[in-house]
Design goal:
Elements: H1 3-16, H2 24-30, E1 35-39, E2 42-45, E3 50-52, H3 56-59, H4 68-80, H5 93-105, E4 110-116, H6 119-136, E5 144-148, H7 157-162, H8 166-169, E6 179-182, H9 187-190, H10 196-214, E7 219-224, H11 240-251, E8 254-258, H12 272-275, E9 282-285, E10 297-302, H13 303-312, H14 326-341, H15 344-362, E11 369-375, E12 378-383, H16 399-409, E13 415-417, E14 420-423, H17 431-452
Parallel strand pairs: 5-6, 5-7, 7-8, 8-9
Antiparallel strand pairs: 1-2, 2-3, 4-10, 9-10, 11-12, 12-14, 13-14
Bound molecules: pyridoxal-5'-phosphate.
Residues 118-120, 123, 152-154, 225, 229-230, 258, 260-261, 286, 297 line the site of pyridoxal-5'-phosphate (PLP).
Length: 453
């Protein structure tokens, strides 16, 4: 693309396009990077620069760009039936086929699915579904959902209320009533001086205390991401999830796992719930269900809730025009089929994740890295000014942003969350491409250290 065409595009973008999660004034001043093409694990910008996509788009392009099977599935379905709804006792083959496949890959007690278009809508769906479940049980007071600080569950009013980011919630007077938050299992930030296992039990114990405070008869559910993604790849200590499971079981409240990021192989299991050996009642999914090629999300509904909804009869007044869109579902069927036939989940677990872990943890030796943690194919680096004391850089120095920019200069997409750098590369990444990712990340850290002075 010529420079003139590029600057014309950027100008039109600035004048007409309000971007999600962006400072529009800043976009106007700094301009945008125009991405024009993707192939495998790489994206290409308008100037033809190749960039390794260390974030799989937004944690979704798990099978890489340009997968023929997914493209052809969309093309076929667009020609056959681009749209029909699943309201009014109608259905169509792609939605049925996908529901059946999802029941096969999901943990044992999940036989049914409710479709949405996004992770945010799926989070809103669980608020309505959980409330309906307890109404059906004749326990209408059981309405409060307990979530965690620094969680991310989307940006609709419900999703953002479930999330736990005060800066975001300040816009729009959120959270809505009926949602409360407890502490997150972020050992590096909150647990220093304590053994991680002890810290895991301590923060999980907050759930028990919150239930007591609210009164168990008022609590509907606990929701959590198996690993908090947007919050900065917060990997809980091993003791955390088993304790959360025990507390939910004893209180009889529903356990909801938001697997929008951890679903479909990211941790080397089909679902993060399997990685942590927990048994939720509801699993929220989106993003990688169809390799991230088209909008699709939903809720896998475990038997406890699904049987109650079905047996009670009466309409569940909830759904979207594009719930179970045939093209999105057909691409998901193709994506899950590719994953099964190529053994992608097993390859992540047995080969790629162990290799990634060894290389990623090696970055902990860098002078400005206080911790290098990872699980499956997600990783985070905590940037610090003093390694021994694990002291953060002054906020005004914006070290995360500096490192993010340095990384792009090196041809690698790494995202920053406050002072952490995070990656979640496509599951189809090779060991040679992991080497490339690590080399580029190391050079970005070197540049950042120099720029921090
Ligand atoms: C855990 C989690 N839940 C929900 C969402 C929201 O999904 P969407 O952007 O598809 O609405 C995200 C998005 O990153 C997420 O990470």
């Amino acid at each position: 693309m010529s420079d003139a065409t590029l600057s014309e595009l950027q100008d039109l973008d600035r004048r007409h396009f309000l971007h999600p999660f962006s400072d529009h004034k800043q976009i106007g001043e700094r301009g945008t990077r125009v991405i024009t093409r993707g192939e495998g694990v790489y994206i290409y910008d308008a100037q033809g620069r190749q960039i390794l996509d260390g974030m799989s788009g937004l944690w979704c392009i798990n099978l890489g760009y340009g997968r023929r099977e997914l493209i052809e599935a969309a093309h076929r379905q667009l020609q056959t039936l681009p749209y029909y709804n699943s309201f009014f006792q109608c259905t169509h083959p792609p939605a049925i086929e996908l529901a059946t496949l999802l029941a096969e890959v999901a943990p044992g007690s999940f036989g049914r699915v409710f479709y949405t278009n996004s992770g945010s809508e799926a989070n809103d769906t669980i608020i309505r579904m959980v409330r309906r479940y307890w109404d059906i049980q004749g326990r209408p007071r059981r309405k409060t959902i307990i979530s965690r600080r620094n969680a991310y569950h989307g940006s609709t009013i419900g999703g953002m209320s479930l999330g736990g980011m005060p800066v975001q919630q300040a816009q729009g007077d959120l959270p809505i009533p009926g949602i409360v938050h407890i502490e997150q299992p972020y050992w590096f930030e909150l647990g220093q001086g304590m053994h991680p296992d002890e810290f895991g039990l301590k923060v999980a114990g907050e759930l028990e205390r919150k239930i007591d405070e609210l009164g168990v008869d008022n609590v509907a559910a606990f929701i959590g991401e198996p690993i908090q993604g947007a919050g900065g790849v917060i990997i809980p200590p091993d003791t955390y999830w088993p304790e959360i499971q025990r507390i939910c079981d004893e209180a009889g409240i529903l356990l909801v796992a938001d697997e929008v990021i951890t679903g479909f192989g990211r941790l080397g299991e089909w679902f993060g719930s399997q990685y942590y050996d927990i048994e939720p009642d509801l699993i929220i999914f989106a993003k990688a269900v169809n390799g991230g090629y088209l909008p699709l999300g939903g809720v896998l509904v475990g038997d406890r809730v699904a049987d109650a909804l079905v047996d009670a009869g009466g309409e569940f007044h909830h759904g979207f025009t594009h719930s179970g869109n045939p093209v999105s579902c057909a691409v998901a069927v193709a994506a899950l089929t590719v994953m099964r036939e190529e053994g992608i989940v097993e390859r992540v677990r047995e080969e790629i994740a162990p290799y990634f872990a060894e290389r990623w943890r090696g970055l902990a030796e860098h002078p400005i890295v206080g911790e290098a943690r990872c699980a499956g194919l997600v990783g985070a680096l905590e940037l610090v000014s003093d390694k021994a004391r694990r002291t953060r850089f002054p906020a005004a120095k914006a070290v995360g942003e500096t490192c993010r920019d340095a990384s792009i200069e090196q041809g690698l997409v790494m995202r920053h969350v406050r002072d952490s750098m995070i990656v979640a590369p496509p599951l189809v990444i090779t060991t040679a491409q992991i080497d490339e990712l690590i080399d580029k990340a190391r050079r970005a850290l070197d540049l950042t250290a120099r720029r921090m002075g």
